[in-house]
Design goal:
This protein is α/β, with parallel strands linked by helices and 497 residues long. It is built from 19 helices and 21 strands. The strands form 6 sheets. The protein has a 9-stranded mixed β-sheet with strand order 11-12-10-9-8-7-6-3-15, with helices on both faces. A 3-stranded antiparallel β-sheet has the order 16-17-18, covered by helices on one side. The structure holds iron/sulfur cluster (SF4).
């Protein structure tokens, strides 16, 4: 292991801005401004293959029922819980920043048809699952789940309740767009048992909202949050995005002030991924309107400072939660997990079943993604098959690297003896090349060496993706450079900063 240097202040590589706050040096910014995965999975989606088909998917599902599966039987008495994610893809209009797999339509009968297929998709999974296993986490995302009418949502929820055993303390969450969600929607969701809502807001500035084609006043968001509270939803999340067109440090100050008045339980502050080669509608956002890398980083740092000074705890790389929130407690206890839904509390101890078009299942050692195109999804369901488009069976090395990357992104540390012990490796031989690659990050105070490995510094958390990247065995240097962009070979990943 490299020599342990004397502790340094995490913002040592910085200078001061006009208000006396720490800012990063341009050199540091340029050095770490690369492209890279967000690591909602490892191996990342570009590594998955179409060779992983329906047969592999069904085998992976069946394997999860075994009591000795993955060594978890001691915790769950043979009943490894389920997390269930349902993708509801419809939206009335496209927000330009969005890279989700959505279907834009005002034809409501499309939702009726989709539900019919979704019901059959779910039923096709059932023969492979032990249905005595409890559901501890349940999430509707999209798209816009409240594109469905309250009656359609009721039918869908009842369908699940008839088939799965919900744990009494299950987290039952839904993404809500205040622009299309009525009081009736919220009342219905609460009656069904939903206890957590996530509201997208992104930014309150009119110029930013206009540029991304999403007009949503702060009043509208406030009214929706008020209704959620009156109805007794236990947790309210708000999603913000930094790096959007026309955002400035000053404009984002205003957004943060409004957010603090709204007082959500959790805040996600996502990095805008400008990936027009993957989401061509983003070509409508002129690059000249996007904040430069250093402004973007100042906005993010402003967010971290403002939210933590207001009492929120900084979680992982981009989440904030109140000190008593489950997410905060999970981070302190080392049980925080990261998956396709972002940071979660329970996902690390369950199998994630993804239902609906493009949904991803994470079966602890296997990833499977459903078809992304609606027509392909419908064809597979008509053929009475699981709608598997691609997937991945993790090797022993993948699992080790996945654990290391999760530990960096969730716990902000890497404990080499603990990993060597868990994966039966020789500690001194583990990650020698990766640790060598991190020496320059240690010099820049993004990490600090410890007796057991390293810890990510406060400054380093902003660069978490860069710190994780040396542990990714599939990442090729040409896919991470920001200088290789060309029309013939579009980049694979968004910028890390
Ligand atoms: S941000 Fe939400 S409402 Fe907008 S296009 Fe994406 S999924 Fe639809």
């Amino acid at each position: 292991m490299p020599e342990v240097p004397s502790p340094k202040h995490p913002f040592q590589a910085s200078s001061q801005d006009a208000e006396g706050y720490a800012t990063l040096s341009t050199a540091l910014l340029e050095k770490y401004s690369t492209r890279g995965p967000r690591y909602t999975s490892y191996p990342t989606v570009p590594v998955w293959t179409n060779d992983f088909d329906e047969k592999h998917h069904t085998e992976a599902l069946k394997r999860t029922n075994r009591p000795d599966y993955n060594g978890h039987q001691a915790d769950f008495h043979g009943h490894m819980p389920f997390s269930i994610y349902t993708h509801l893809p419809f939206c009335e209009a496209r927000c330009l920043f969005c890279s989700c797999n959505v279907v834009i339509t005002k034809q409501r009968d499309q939702a009726k048809k989709y539900l019919d297929y979704l019901f059959r998709d779910i039923d096709h999974h059932l023969p492979y699952l032990d249905l005595s296993r409890p559901v501890t986490q349940f999430h509707w995302g999209g798209g816009t789940p409240t594109y469905l009418s309250p009656e359609q949502m009721g039918d869908l929820f009842a369908f699940y309740k008839e088939r799965f055993l919900f744990s009494p303390d299950a987290e039952i969450a839904v993404e809500v767009d205040p622009r299309v969600t009525s009081k009736e929607h919220l009342q219905a969701l609460r009656e069904f048992g939903f206890n957590r809502v996530s509201l997208g807001l992104q930014d309150v500035e009119p110029a930013v909202q206009e540029a991304v084609h999403r007009i949503q006043s702060a009043d509208m968001t406030e009214r929706m949050m008020q209704s959620c509270r009156e109805l007794g939803f236990g947790g309210i999340n708000l999603d913000l995005i930094y790096g959007l067109p026309h955002q400035t440090v000053d404009s984002f100050k205003n957004t943060l002030e409004v957010i603090l008045k709204l007082n959500p339980d959790r805040i996600a502050l996502y990095n805008y991924a400008h990936v027009p080669w993957m989401s061509p509608h983003q070509n409508l956002i002129p690059e000249s309107t996007l904040p430069t890398g250093d402004v973007k980083l100042q906005i993010f740092q402003l967010g971290i400072r403002t939210l933590t000074e207001a009492g929120y705890v900084y979680i992982g790389m981009d989440h904030f939660a109140k000190p008593t929130d489950e997410l905060t407690l999970a981070m302190k206890e080392g049980t925080l997990h990261r998956n396709f839904m972002g940071y979660t509390v329970r996902a690390g101890q369950s199998d994630l079943l993804g239902f609906g078009v493009s949904a991803i299942s994470d079966l602890q050692g296997y990833y499977a993604q459903n078809h992304r195109k609606l027509s392909d999804y419908y064809d597979a369901v008509d053929a009475k098959e699981l709608p598997t488009m691609r997937g991945c069976a993790l090797t022993a090395e993948d699992k080790l690297r996945s654990k290391a990357i999760l530990s960096i992104l969730c716990q902000g540390e890497l404990n080499r003896p603990a990993l060597a012990n868990a994966f039966h490796c020789v500690e001194s031989e583990l990650f020698q090349t990766e640790f060598k690659a991190l020496e320059s990050l240690a010099k820049d105070t993004l990490i600090e060496w410890t007796d057991t490995g390293f810890r990510v510094t406060d400054l380093g958390r902003i660069f978490s993706r860069n710190i994780a990247m040396p542990f990714d065995a599939y990442l090729k240097p040409e896919t991470t450079s920001v200088n290789n962009d060309s029309k013939d070979a579009p980049p694979m990943f968004s910028k890390t900063l």
